[in-house]
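Deviation from plan, reported transparently: 6-O-phosphono-beta-D-fructofuranose complex.
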Amino acid sequence: MSALTDSPAWKALAAHQRTIATRHLREWFAAEPGRAAHHSFEGAGVFADFSKHRMDDTTLDLLHRFALQQDVVGWRDRMFAGEKINTTEGRAALHTALRRPPSMPLQVDGVDVMPAVAGVLGRMRGFCEAVRSGERRGHTGRRFTDVVNLGIGGSDLGPAMVTDALQPYTSATLRVHHVSNVDAADLVPRLAVLDPETTLFIICSKTFTTIETITNADTARQWLVAALGDPRATGAHFVAVSTNLEGTRQFGIDPENVFGFWDWTGGRFSLWSAVGLSVMLAAGPEAFDELLAGARAMDEHFLQAPLERNLPVRMGLLGAWYTNFFAATSHAVLPYDQRLQRLPAHLQQLEMESNGKSVDRQGRRVDYATCPILWGSPGTNGQHAFYQLLHQGTLLVPSDFIVARQPHHADPLHHRLLVANCLAQTEALAFGKTESEARAELAQRGTSDDRTDLLAANQTFAGNQPTTTLMVERLDPRAVGALVALYEHKVLVQSALWNINPFDQWGVELGKKLALRIGTGLLPGAVTIEGMDGSTRALIDRFRT
Ligand code: F6P
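Because the crystal trials were delayed, the predicted structure below was used instead.
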């Protein structure tokens, strides 16, 4: 038993879970008429209804004790203060500095980082305005029509997701693409429809060593130079976003065209930095400022709201409640907004790369579950695919429903149907349909007795699936910033609860190393790699022959 699972707060929650484990949301709601209002609150423009969760005030009280025991507030404050809480890499985790008011100094290693943050933001603004206005042009003097962000992981998912989310704010004359996969099926068809004279590339890589991004950048450069017939064209058509200035120099990018950031910005937390350059090109500097303002508002909410009415704290605690005390192994994110179609993918990296760990901060193997599998896709599409499992499968899957009160379009019918479906699903998941209700419906339809048992069993919905409904006024840049920051802080909260470091990602390293070794082994005529397992060697042989 670890210190955590042996702790008073953990044991109290485990004991409490046993007393309420079989209680149904129907019972919670029947016993508490004001339940919806009691368990709903708002922060940074995000309204959250937590009432459809398997909890009561005692649960919340015990969860708050758990948060206090695990020093969630201390970890939050250390993160905001720039302490090196990423201990395995000896780094601070200061993505919040990227949206902090520039007038508030913040020291890292004795240096105020805010002037540098403001400096890069200012350069990004100048660059984006020049490209968007046509002042800055390609090698042959033509105006840019397309921007291709070459990056992967945090250098792709965040900016790609936000660019989609802000589509109503994006320029009609500058199309922004995101290419990530080393599979040429991602880059090559994209290049096939682009005009080299009017295409700008952003090589977006914190380390500037990521094989996928550098390979795509090399291929794009060859394509450009071959088409324009002049190697000097690279200078006008390539910019870089990186912390590795030596790497960008070696690639041949003028330091003037490099937008830097800092090792205290983790890849999956980096969209607020120069990694957001593609977002700013697409939606403009003002929208980017609003995005930062929304995230800042959520930072302030996280810092100031009491634990009891703190959105990231509540979401982190409820996630742990189901993961650790109900053995839930996955969590669904279901945005009822097509523009958030890439949000689940971004959150997969954010949560699973951060908290998908099995050793604690002291390097001891944990004896409790950490991050569940996060998955999801937009409603209503998912309703016609995997919701069957949510309604009638055997798994407990807590989920987040996200919806905007107002659409950007002027079609009330579509939006009403979208919202109706969102609310209907949370209602059905919570309350289900009892067997006697199913039987009554069958009787009303005149179903024969010999069919009733079978159909009633199939048409019963257990319900009791917990959901959070998050509602914003409109999916504008501010709301997007607040939503993403909410999940970032949920990650911090859960890392404190589980006593793990959320800011490193050693788990991605082994596969990268092995791929390099196997890559040489796949070359025609390569010698057999010593010490390789039989299965991998046989697959290499099959590929080579
Ligand atoms: O392989 C994982 C990872 O290191 C992520 O953490 C990161 O977001 C991604 O690769 C891309 O890294 P980079 O920005 O250095 O190319």
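The chain has a mean pLDDT of 96. We consider this an acceptable substitute for the interim report.
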